[in-house]
Amino acid sequence: MSFHAAIFDLDGVIADTARLHLQAWRQLAKELQLPWNDAMEEGLKGLERMASLEVILGHRSPDFTDGEKVALASRKNDCYRALIETLSPADLLPGAGELLHWLRSRHIPIGLASASKNAPAVLNALEIADCFTYIADPSAAAPKPAPDIFLAAATGLAAEPAVCLAFEDAAAGVDAIQAAGMTAVGVGDRNALQNADHLLNSLVEFEPERFFSAHNTPSPISASIA
Ligand code: BG6
Ligand code: MG
């Protein structure tokens, strides 16, 4: 099968930012004296901000009003924003920069399907924003495992879902890719990602020549998020 477009999750696939999200949530849990369970960590991957907060609050959730929850999520986000200020190209995960440049040099359209509203800031800090043909807007899409964000990315790339190869580190993301009718490459934890069509320990193992053939015409650059 030759794919025409590549779509990436960001946190935990392109950059080691999944651990920064967890660090910020762990900090909030500590401040609120909530129990932190390491087993929660895999389940938090890929979860949208307010859904993550509900997991952290657990049975204490009813103790907080909606307004207080928004303030807590914003507190976590301030902590996360401070953490990503330290990011640089050195924080690209192994193989990520090489793969993006391989695809770019062959004019294969590249989309981003991240749940994170901080994705544009992270891409800028990693100095890879220019690699992306289209960045899907997470605030306009139902959260993973719904297929919406991957379908939005495919639409932005003008590619049919069946010819999109998509990369994820979270089980909810693999489910979203497959619900979108795309082929899923799971990167990371083999137990969590066993439903993926292809499994990799890291992007270093990915052999792009087996999946893509070069496009003849350059793809337009049109990032969607401001
Ligand atoms: C996902 C992360 O990419 O984005 C989650 O895997 C995070 O951990 C989610 O909660 C939302 O991110 P943000 O930056 O909008 O809070
Ligand atoms: Mg991820």
Automatic annotation (TrEMBL):
Q: What is its EC number?
A: 5.4.2.6
Q: Which top-rank group of organisms is this from?
A: Bacteria
Q: Which cofactor does it need?
A: Mg(2+)
| Single annotated GO MF | beta-phosphoglucomutase activity
Q: How is the cofactor bound?
A: Binds 2 magnesium ions per subunit.
User: Where is Mg(2+) annotated to bind?
Assistant: D9, D11, E168, D169
Positions of the catalytic residues: D9 (nucleophile), D11 (proton donor/acceptor)
Keywords, A to Z? Isomerase, Magnesium, Metal-binding
- The record's top EC class is isomerase
Name listed for the protein in its UniProt record: Beta-phosphoglucomutase
Among the record's GO biological process terms, what is one? carbohydrate metabolic process
Q: Which family would the database say this protein is a member of?
A: Belongs to the HAD-like hydrolase superfamily. CbbY/CbbZ/Gph/YieH family.
Q: Which residues bind substrate?
A: 9-11, 25, 44-49, 52, 76, 114-118, 144
NCBIfam families, from UniProt? bPGM, HAD-SF-IA-v3, PGMB-YQAB-SF
Q: Which Gene3D superfamilies match?
A: HAD superfamily/HAD-like (3.40.50.1000), Putative phosphatase, domain 2 (1.10.150.240)
> In chain numbering, where does the site feature Important for catalytic activity and assists the phosphoryl transfer reaction to Asp8 by balancing charge and orienting the reacting groups fall?
S114, K144
